[in-house]
Amino acid sequence: MTCRRGLGYAVGLADPDREKQVDFPRIQGFGQVDDVPRPVFSLITETTFVGETEPHHHDKAQLMCVISGVLTMRAAGGLWTVPPHCAMWIPGDVSHAGRVAGHIKILNLYIDAHLAASLDQDCGILFVPPFLRELILRFDGEALPAAMGREREARLIAVLLDELATATLEPIHLSMPNDRRLLRLTEAMIEHPDQRFTIDEWGARVGASNRTLSRLFQRETGMSFVRWRQQLHIGLALQRLGEGQSVTNIAGDLGYDSVSAFISMFKRMLGTTPARYFEELATGIPEGNSRRTLARGEAVGRDAAEAEAAPNIIPLKKRPA
Fold first, then answer.
1. SS3 call for 128
2. Cβ atoms of residues 98 and 191 within 8 Å
3. All domains of the chain, ordered by start, with CATH?
4. How many Cα atoms are found within 13 Å in the side-chain-facing hemisphere of 83?
5. Contact 77, 107 (CB under 8 A)
6. pLDDT tens for residues 41-60?
């Protein structure tokens, strides 16, 4: 598929010969995001379909806040799962495509490139607290700019940028490989996350040895096979937790033999239990954890330097007792 600009998205359905144009909300009189003469504006997308949007890009930076539904994004050579109540940060001119399965409602925020220059130039996932969500809604793209007034708009933009700069990034990123054998393997794991094949069993299916796959995983994703699969499960689990699914059902759907085994993996990766994850996000970073913020080149916590050095997996380490 080709990468293009614009506010509309062509969506591939189950039948590859059929395509349907999904008209996402537009600001009257403007066909593309970059044509809108406002430094910051927001739009709400609500639609129902199953498929993947065409890759596209725009000069403006974008924050995609998932209000409800399940969204998976491909951008910057990686796969990003976006749970409800969270958002994906996409810097300007980064090609991205989204996959949706069913009904979804998204609050989109667009920011001029010069205003977004102080924010991270890499994609990331962040939790959206109620205050930030309401602040984004103040920039309704359908409202006339004069209704807000330039001085008030400038003050609100300053607050918005400050809130975004201090937002912490969540470790829900999967680097996707280029090697065709590894790509077949990872795509199969994404499609069937409950499959618990060993790396030897996967190797037999894609025509590569254990040693070759282990080397390729480390070289192309920066992770081991086991870590990549755990990272996949974390992203899928957070999506489903955000939808209100039970921990028991999630553990079963991801192929775990017991709920306790799933909880143990989750806590080892994120430093807290599935039941408490979103509650702790709403009240701040759990004590002892360290995460990068959306401010360019900054991080939170004592392991900030480690987080910056390893962007594929943001380390969440407990402080020594």
1. coil
2. no
3. 9-165 (2.60.120.280), 173-283 (1.10.10.60)
4. 25
5. no
6. 999 988 887 788 889 899 99
